[in-house]
Amino acid sequence: MTTGLLRLAKTVVNKLTRPLFARTPHAVDDCPLTHGTTQQLWQDLIARGESPATITPHLLQLERESPDFGRYQALRTLHARVAQPHQVNYLLAQEEFQRGAAEMTAYPTYVLMDISNICTVECKFCKYTHDFQDKRWLSLEEMQRFEWLQYALYLNFTAGTAEALSNPQFIPIFDYIYKKYPHLIFGLLTNGRTLSEKILNALEGRLHELHVSMNASNEQDYNEIIANGSWSLFARNMKHVQALARRTKKPWVQASFVKMRWNLDRAVADLEFAFEHGATKVLFHHFYPHYIQDLHSGDSRVLAEKFGPQQSLYFDKEKADDVFARVRERGKELGVDVETPPPFAGADTHITWGARTSTPPPSACAYPWTHMFMLWGWKSRREEITMCCGLASDTGIYFDWHEIMTKDGLFKTWNSPTMQAYRRTANGRRVNPVCALCRTIDRFDPHSIYPDQRKFFEFNDLPVPPHFKEGKWPSLTVIAVDGKEAA
Asked: Is pTM, for the whole model, over 0.90?
């Protein structure tokens, strides 16, 4: 699901900032600045929504203080001075990315934060189990300690490993963050079980994007794919989402479904269910079996409760292509945006974030400079960050919640040796083994190589995190074409 979160962050920010760039730009002739660098920054910041009255005095002061400066120096100076620094921070992060800086001055632009490590269901395609970690959530008092969210542009209340609405103080937390940081673009991923009318009333008109991981459109499929869920609660809450979507366009509603061999035939019905209940975009994902096998390889009970690799659509490619083609066609008839995996038979595909896509990948990856996922690590069972939802996982970049809430604590983690090593080796001629695989393998293919994260640390001469015990994470069983284990 984290891959969907990464797409979600980009999609939502692009959707909400596009009107800013569509405005008629202020002409340079209207600009009171005389230096080429400050003139360009003036244009760039106004295009991103800053008002001339706010930004012009700072740029004029910069011209008076130093007649000879570059864009990077100017951005760093503005970053420390402006009262609302999120747009300057965005440009500074992009500048440090272009420069390949290992140590950051900019704060993370996109923040995805698990405010709880508890999920309210146990999806059988997901690694999550209720008894794997000690239960923990962030309190309102803890959220009030954050010193640096004014620099971020986007905040999602989950990093993809649990359910934010399981936090008993979700509404007070959302109210506080919304009022304290009104500039933030807010996203929320939920399984829908606890998305009550009370929660929706608190989100209405304030949350920008609501992503519901639906995964089923009828009670029988719901009970088959989700353990410890409640179809009655889910179905009731989806009626509330439907009513919300009919009376407002904020939040924008997106839905997703994980498709396997057993439930592939219901894909069109799933699309119609999502559309009927207010979704303006519907995504269909492949089942990702590797991380279940990797995390729970020694637990036969958990593996028996989860779907196995044989459910992958990679063992039924022709049928998958046919069904997804019908889904896309039905989406056109309904007027809803639909995203499916690219056809297996299609020759024009690429690899981005360790997955097949019809979109060419960027020439360089910016995520170590712009994104921060704050989560409870599954192998480490400790708080750790990662910078993407591709193949870089189990990073061993541990943090303490109370420390990272401070500016100094944030940069201790954001500029840790491992983060700096990722920035030095994510792009260019000397790419680390994990980032190299992210551009070359399709991780949803049961036959693909599951990356050994230890190789990243060995490549960069860094100590291997203690949660990678020798022999604890064995190689995965190779799955034969017919979906059975190879001999």
From this structure: yes
